[in-house]
Amino acid sequence: MSDTLFERIINREVPADIVHETDTTIAFRDINPRATTHVLVVPKTRYRNVAELAAADPGLLADVVNTAARVAELEGVADAGYRLTFNTGEDAGQTVFHVHGHLLGGSPLGPEARPPK
Ligand code: 5GP
Predict the structure, then answer these.
(1) Which of 5, 35, 2, 1 is CA-nearest to residue 95?
(2) What is the mean pLDDT of residues 18-25?
(3) pLDDT tens-digit profile of 31-82?
(4) What span, in angstroms and rounded, lies between the C-alpha atoms of 28 and 6?
(5) From the alpha carbon of 28, which atom of ligand 1 is closest?
(6) Is it the case that residue 116 has pLDDT exceeding 80?
(7) Whose CA is nearest to atom 20 of ligand 1?
(8) What is the CA(31)–ligand 1 centre distance, in A?
């Protein structure tokens, strides 16, 4: 399996604005932010999506969520609220197939998806 962009960021082969790191996770700013705060939270071990991560290593999924909560505190958005989303597959817009949570916040967020009319 070839490296994804996020493995290259984890290995410091591609630069990123890293805001927090633990033994098992890394968090860095999205290069194309879609909210005032937009941080990607990534487990250092690769799974394609959040369902595969949950099935294989639920403790690591908990690490990702706990890292997101810590980043929300560091970014000053924990009290006002934030969104943590995991795009899964092409229809959801997933482009990097190394699971990552999008932590979005810093201003009120509208609904991302609406049911078809
Ligand atoms: P996805 O679309 O897979 O859910 O999310 C991938 C995210 O990675 C996108 O929001 C995109 O803006 C971000 N991204 C793509 N290339 C880079 C990069 O080189 N550096 C950083 N920090 N983010 C990137």
Answers:
(1) 5
(2) 98
(3) 999 999 999 999 999 999 999 999 999 999 999 999 999 999 999 999 999 9
(4) 10
(5) 22
(6) no
(7) 31
(8) 6
- The structure's pTM equals 0.96
Q: Is 85 in the pocket of ligand 1 (CB under 6 A)?
A: no
Distances (CA, A) of 61 to 14, 47, 99: 24, 11, 10
Q: What's the CA-to-centroid distance between 30 and ligand 1, angstroms? A: 6
Mean pLDDT for 90-108 is 96
Q: Cβ contacts of residue 114 below 8 Å, gap of 6+? A: none
100 is catalytic: yes
Out of 5, 83, 85, 94, mutate this one to test ligand 1's pocket (max ligand atoms within 8 Å of CB): namely: 5
pLDDT one-digit tens code per residue, 61-71: 999 999 999 99
Cα distance between residue 71 and residue 26, in whole Å? 10
Please give the domain boundaries of the chain with CATH numbers for all domains: 5-105 (3.30.428.10)
Is the distance from the beta carbon of residue 28 to the nearest atom of ligand 1 less than 6 Å? yes
